[in-house]
Amino acid sequence: MRRIELSLLILIVVISGCATDYYGYSKQQWNALTREQQAVVIEQYDYILQEKEEQRHEDLIESYRQKVIERGVDYSFPR
């Protein structure tokens, strides 16, 4: 369940990030934030990027693990 929520959050950030240059905010919204609020947004954005990279890494490991399993199954049942 956590992966689904995280994936949705990342998707929202990526989509909104493509639309603006202010961490998902419009320029007007970004300028309305205090420096402290902007710092929190940047921190959250960096956290999301870190989680995304960790998820990509875990997906690669899982992909390799699945290939090893499939290779083992292929060798254990002669055709």
Describe the structure.
The chain has helices at residues 2-19, 27-32, 35-76. It is mainly alpha-helical and 79 residues long. α1 packs across α3 (35-76). The mean pLDDT is 82.
Brief synopsis:
By secondary structure, this protein is mainly alpha-helical.
Detail the poorly predicted runs: none
Mean pLDDT: 82
Shape category:
rod-shaped
Number of helices: 3
Q: Residue share in helices? A: over 70%
Rounded to an integer, what's the Rg over CA atoms?
20 Å
Quickly give the structural class: mainly alpha
The SSE order reads HHH
Number of strands: 0
Structural features:
79 residues
Q: Which secondary structure elements does this structure contain, and how are they paired or packed?
A:
Layout: H1 2-19, H2 27-32, H3 35-76
Helix pairs in contact: 1-3
